[in-house]
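Most newcomers find our protein records easier to grasp once they have seen one. A learned vocabulary of local backbone shapes supplies the integers on the structure line. Here is such a record, shown just as it appears in the course material:
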Amino acid sequence: MVKTTTQAAQAFNGANGASSNINVAAMVAFINANGMGNVNLQLTPNALANGVLFGGGALWRVMQPKKSGAVSARGLILWACVNGVPQHTVKGVKCYNVAGISTKLPTKLAAVPLAAIQAAHQHWDASVFANANSSHTNQNAVAAVLNGGFNLSSQTANTYGTAFGKLVVSS
């Protein structure tokens, strides 16, 4: 396992205000160094403040069903960050069941394996490694959770720069 200093972890482990968003390249390097199977996303208590996820901002809105009653791909990936992705067995092989992602508010915030979140991302051609060389996090929900939004805009002004999670290495 790669051990990090507090200063190094700060580079990717949660924004410190809208002008101090996380460094996605540092986050990707941390995941690669520790191995995706050893890294989890742990939501912080403020992620579920007042019984509403992510401060009720743009991240929460995208997690809600559309008029058709379906949750968008981006919303389901965010739900995977919250509740994980269940596994099932297909022909004797365990795999992630993206269709089974829960869209219910959790009662307890548990660490979610990054491999499960990556499975949800990949189902919709996104990745936890996306946007490593960009200031926005359009295709990377983990970075968006760590930053408080997918990018800084008028819609995310209230939550961007708020860390709603952190990456933790499983022991």
Q: What stands out?
A: The CA atoms of residues 77 and 120 lie 6 Å apart. The chain has six helices and five strands. The longest strand covers residues 39-43. The chain has one domain: 6-169.
